[in-house]
Amino acid sequence: MKKNARIVITGAAGLVGQNLIVELERQGYSNLVAIDKHAYNMGILRQLHPAVTAIDADLAEPGAWTDAFAGAHCVVQLHAQITSKFPDEFVRNNVRATRRVLDAMNHHNVPYLVHISSSVVVSVANDDYTNTKKDQEALVVASSIRHCVLRPTLMFGWFDPKHFGWLSRFMAKTPVFPIPGNGRYMRQPLYERDFCRCIAWCIAHQPDGDIYDVVGDTRIDYVDIIKTIKQAKGLRTLIVHIPYGLFHAMLRIFALFSGRPPFTAAQLEALTAGDDFVGVDTSKVFEVRQTPFEMAVKESYCDPTYSHIVLKR
């Protein structure tokens, strides 16, 4: 694909979108359109990338945003509801919005879609996020649009308002950091910059109908992730283990007083579910050699340009 080809990115102001735009601009793409409804995060995107066409729009609602698809060569579909206390929000933003995006692509004859799904669609989890991500992926696969699907595992990197990003900031503010149970819950975290390079490869090569499970190369327990972040940031925070049942109850109580809790009881259950994902060899498939975990953590939380920028949820 030519570097001046029009590429539309939905959910562009989120974690993957912000990282993807950094990567695509570094690779020379010059005709990027970013669509998202989060005003604050779109403000960050505009400040960092003034050359990008930024459109504030709710994809679950009809509107002039569909005009941006005219003349596009590719759409990267990133929009997703990841956490919420309200089931309807998952349906609205993962399913209804996706139907509208697919309709806009068909209307404007956009030839290719890179759909970002999630490893949860093949996990043992059973929650609103998992079930609506399954529905979202099914809509893409059933469409007549040429596409590929990428299913990443838990991601970390620049701009992260949740997950490791929130944990790293919390750790820097508190003298004691709680760990549920023994903390020996194996994770396969995927570095955002590596994943965005995989997306860029798909934009350029446009594999047809392929589904890729994209998994972090490092298999590491949750407690060791926390220790790696602590070491990278040079913190002296004391790590304390709390019985799982008590930790679960604390999260449920906290959710009663927080509109958007950074970590929920459902996410704790997913953390301890025992998933073990098998992914593609990113070096062979996407020509992307993954960054060593310790180096990726250092880049994520100590980079002078981006590590201090945090999105809002």
Structure description:
- By secondary structure, the chain is an alpha/beta fold.
- The protein has a domain at 7-159 and 188-218 and 277-291: 3-Layer(aba) Sandwich (Rossmann fold).
- Helix content is 42%, strand content 16%.
- The chain has helices at residues 15-26, 39-48, 87-107, 128-142, 163-173, 192-205, 222-233, 244-257, 265-271, 282-285, 293-302, and strands at residues 7-10, 32-36, 53-56, 74-77, 112-116, 146-152, 155-156, 176-180, 186-187, 190-191, 211-214, 220-221, 238-242.
- The strands form 4 sheets. The protein has a 7-stranded parallel β-sheet, sandwiched between helices. A two-stranded parallel ribbon has the order 7-10. The chain has a two-stranded parallel sheet with strand order 8-13.
- α1 packs across α6, α3 packs parallel to α4 and α5 (163-173) packs across α7 (222-233).
- It is globular.
The CATH architecture of the domain at 7-159 and 188-218 and 277-291 comes to 3-Layer(aba) Sandwich
Q: Report the sheet-strand fraction.
A: 15-25%
Number of helices: 11
Shape: globular
- Helicity range of the residues? 40-55%
Highest CATH level, the class of the domain at 7-159 and 188-218 and 277-291: Alpha Beta
Q: Order of strands side by side in the largest beta sheet?
A: 3-2-1-4-5-6-11
| CATH structural fold name of the domain at 7-159 and 188-218 and 277-291 | Rossmann fold
Low-confidence segments, given as residue ranges, are none
Query: How is the main sheet built?
Result: 7 strands, parallel
Quick overview:
The chain is of the alpha/beta class and 313 residues long. It contains eleven helices and 13 strands. The protein has a domain at 7-159 and 188-218 and 277-291: 3-Layer(aba) Sandwich (Rossmann fold).
